[in-house]
Design goal:
The protein has two domains: 181 residues, Rossmann fold; 30 residues. It has 247 residues and is an alpha/beta fold. The longest helix is centred in the middle third of the chain and has 19 residues. Helix 1 packs across helix 7 and helix 4 runs parallel beside helix 5. The termini are far apart.
Length: 247
Amino acid sequence: MKQKVVLAYSGGLDTSFCCIYLTRDLGFEVHSVIVNTGGFSDEELKAVEKRAFEMGVTSHHVVDETKNFYDSCVRYLIYGNVLKNNTYPLSVSAERVSQATAIANYAKEIGAEYVAHGSTGAGNDQVRFDMIFNILVPEVKILTPIRDLKLSREEEIEYLKKHGVEMNFEKAKYSINKGIWGTSVGGKETLTSNLGLPEDAWPTQVTSTEEKNLELTFEKGELVAIDGERYDHPTKAIQALQAIAQP
């Protein structure tokens, strides 16, 4: 009987590699989980699910943590005006706690012997995921294929091509993390400080050229209305503002 592993899955390069590697090379029964913290549309979630099954997962599960992430974390970042290095919001780093917690809970729910994530050995995400897993599910073993194999993104791409995986490999050269409180993009240019990202590395490109004035209403620091239209939760207002600003 195959052992179960719950894989933190986003559909990107790293977790796609993990999916193929864990199923085909190591023989695990892989259950993928995507934890949405506000960065995925319904259409994107459906596309991720389709890709997961194409990669050979046994099951795929979607957890919507958007509201919980905001209520338990983002709200207090706003209250404290918290900025890393007094420069930019804690977006991806903050949401990892909500994501790892949801994955740990799902691993307990289905009785998985392992959890896996696609973090490399270069950043802090590996620590965030490992710490939460060790606290919440200490009996479950952690698998980190990208970190353990010390793979470059180019090596991951070659591996997936060899296994017949089709995806936008030019876009896959960049690691993109989207959530309610921000989007981060990482690639070879971000390893140094003298290069900028090419325009096509961004998940969306600005196409609008006209100026637009908006009236934003805040209560206790939280966005509650745009141009007089109130929203039942700040996450709805933030997403509406993103839809306006994104083009």
